[in-house]
Structure formats: structure tokens, C-alpha cells
Amino acid sequence: MTVAGTETHDGHGGPLAGVRVVELAGIGPGPFAAMLLADLGADVVRVDRPGGGGLTIDPEYDITNRNKRSVIVDLKAEGGAERVLGLVDRADVLIEGYRPGIAERLGVGPADCHARNPKLVYGRMTGWGQEGPLAQRAGHDIAYIAPTGTLGMFGGPDEPPAIPVNLVGDFAGGSLYLVVGILAALHHARVTGTGQVVDAAIVDGTAHLASMIHGMLAAGAWQDRRGANLLDGGAPFYSTYETSDGQYMAVGALEQRFYGEFIDLLGLADTAPARGDLSRWGELRDAVAARFKERTRDEWTAVFEGSDACVAPVLSLREAPHHPHLAARGTFVDHGGITQPAPAPRFTRTPTAVRSGPARPGADTASVARDWDVPALTDDEPTEPQKKGS
């Protein structure tokens, strides 16, 4: 690794300060993984393609590109691959999210990179993985999590599977597993001096996320259908309920002592059916639902405040930063006029921060060429940062 000090290129610290990362521009899980490394202090240089790409929003709002720098390189043009390999010479990590074989055809595949830098950790982010019958097929989050059995767990028993945005596949099963793999491979490279390829497939990570459920299934403690289990909304004391104002409360009173407090504060301690009688769960759910419909979300929040009933209000994205606990912890921060989640997790000796807003394509070519000592990057440098669709 090239860890030479305790600060990043812009003078801020973080546990990955001194680690250099090359990110070949993509969308979704790759950029998010690179953002997480950047949040942790790594010097992440995003290699954008001419004309933009990625999300359809203006680059200044693409939070997944915060704490990074950007250069523009046309990998299809003569000398493009060589410029990227110039960065690879000085990098610890490379992240790419192309279909299998594309990076090799562009001249920046693992063999090309390891010939220049044997210590490099080469992170590959795909949906289906680098091999297998579907490896070359296009897809998105929902199609990746469907065959793993994970998508089929979400939603009610008589409804289609509920779509968990793209959090479960792209970011949990994809980005986070890529980052774990990269950090493990970085440790190995530091000990042995040898890099390797990290094959992070969303199907693998998403399947792995359900490890506990598979154990419960094998033990006969999980039914292989939606809305019939302890943790999938099947239990009336682990579910969501509508309030009188059309909002919702989340209930997670699993343990008996928490359930006792919940049912007491709800005012049903003397009338609710025994929770251990599964044949009466429907009756219990109806009683709880009817009670929640008697007051607003804010009124119920006040009722359960300070208790161990494991009940919380279901907030919207815009409401969440104002929740008293999240506000006290600084879970969300404002940077550049954008309210956004703060870096996580937290560290006692190497604190992290949002150091810079989303990198504008090509805006940092000169500084990266200087700091990484890759003067070829400035050849034919765009005169202005490129915007999406330019």
C-alpha cells in the first residue's frame, strides 16, 4: 500500500488516509462503494468518460461522488488505456463495474493492471458475477435479488413481492460486499506484497445476507412464504400500523418483556389475545391495528417515548434528518446545500467527514496529475468541467 501519512490529499484524515483508489465510472453499486472508501479517507479518483454518463441527475447532486476527484479519459481513444494505467501504477485499488471482458478489451483488465502494479487490488462489481450462465446478461437490482430468494421474502402474504428500492441488491449485497472484499485484499496485499481480483457479484452478496434466514429455514423455524414469520411482518408484534392521520408506526416488540410494555402502553394489556397463540395472531393484529387508528403518529410517538416497547414512527426521507436522536448524533449533515447521510461508521482516532461535494467530471485533472505524478492526464484536458449530457 502507498499509505505514507495520516492525511488525505486535501489535508483531512480518516482510517484509509493515504490509500489511492481508481474508480472507472459506472452507476449504482460501484460509485457507492468508491464513495464509502472516499468517506473513510481514501484518495479516490473517478475516471469519467467524455460526454458524461451515470445517473440522469445533474452531477452536482450525485452524492455518491462526494469526497472524490474526477478526471476525464476516453478509454476507447488512442492512449486512453495508457493514461489509466499511469494512475494504476500509483494506486492501491481499482474499481470497475463493466460486464465481464469489457475491461480486458479496453486494455485495463486485471492482467494489464497487475503487469504494471502487482500489489493492486482489482475490485470487480457486477450483478451476476464474472462467470456463470448469466454473466453476460444485462440486469438491475430487482432482477439480481429475485433468483436468490431474497426478493420473495418482502411483502404481504397475498400481495406481489414488495420492492426494497435498490438497497438490498445494489448497495447491501453489492457495494458493501465489494468494500469488505477490497479491505480484506488490501490487508493481504500489505502483508504479502501481492494483489488480487475481488469478484463481487450482487447475487452472491444478496444470498449471503440471508444466511440467518437459511439457518432458520433448515431448523424449521421459518416458513418459505411471505408474511408468515417472526421477522417478515407475519407476527403482529413485528409489523407496521397505520395511524389516524394516514401515517405509520413500526413495532418490533419481539421479546416478552418488551412486548409487555408495548401492549400495556397501547392500552390492550387486559384484552389482547395471548401472543403465543398463533391461531389468534389475526385477532391480535386486528386489535392492535384498531388501537393505532385512534391516534395520530405524533401522538403515538409521544406515548411510546422513553419506553422499551420497541416502537418508532415511520418517517419520510425529508423528515428523517429532524428526528431528535438522529439530529443529536449528526446522522445527517448539510454540505453544499444538500442534506445527506453523514459518513458511517464512526472512528475515535481517525474521524471521517464530508470533505467535498460531488466531483464534477474532469474538474480535478490538473490536481490529480500533479498529486499522483501522472502528467499525461493533462494532455488534451477539457477546458471546463463537463456536465451530464454535454
What would the principal axes of the Cα set say about the shape? elongated
The succession of helices and strands, N to C, reads EHEEHEHHEHHEHHEEHHHEHEEH
Which structural class best describes the helix and strand composition?
A: alpha/beta
Q: State Rg.
A: 24 Å
Major beta sheet summary: 6 strands, parallel
- Strand order in the largest sheet: 3-2-1-4-5-6
Write down how many β-strands occur, each being a DSSP E stretch of 2 or more residues: 11
Which blocks of ≥5 consecutive residues have pLDDT under 50? 1-8, 382-390
Describe the model:
The structure is a single chain. With 390 residues, the protein is an alpha/beta fold. It has 13 helices and eleven strands. It has a six-stranded parallel sheet with strand order 3-2-1-4-5-6, with helices on both faces. The chain has a three-stranded antiparallel sheet with strand order 7-8-9, covered by helices on one side. The chain has a two-stranded antiparallel sheet with strand order 10-11. A hairpin with a 2-residue loop joins strand 10 (332-335) and strand 11. It is elongated.
Question: What key attributes describe this structure?
Answer:
390 residues; three-stranded antiparallel β-sheet; six-stranded parallel β-sheet; disordered N terminus; 32% helix; alpha/beta
